[in-house]
Design brief:
Blueprint (H helix, E strand, L loop, with lengths): L11 H10 L6 H10 L16 H29 L1
Length: 83
């Protein structure tokens, strides 16, 4: 581990979060490097359900959730207009 040649200021909340994510033996620099290196590949898993019925099942779950959400929003709007 290299010595620090610069300092940065972070809020108390950010410091607490870094402490929470800190693994045994890690410096704050190590934590930041690890977090920054954990770039997510947004296309990872794309097409994973091809040739299976899992994609259809996921769409059905999603559609049911959207319907329930729409129903809740409509019910809230009705309650507001009743008052």
């Amino acid at each position: 581990m290299a010595t620090a040649d610069e300092q940065i200021r972070v809020s108390d909340a950010v410091k607490r979060e870094l402490e929470r994510r800190r693994r045994e033996g890690e410096s704050f620099n190590d934590v930041l490097e690890r977090i920054l290196d954990e770039e997510r590949d947004l296309l990872a898993g794309f097409g994973a359900f091809k040739g299976t019925d899992r994609g259809k099942a996921m769409r059905e779950v999603h559609d049911r959730g959207k319907e329930k959400s729409r129903e809740r929003i409509e019910a809230m709007a009705e309650r507001r207009s009743d008052g």
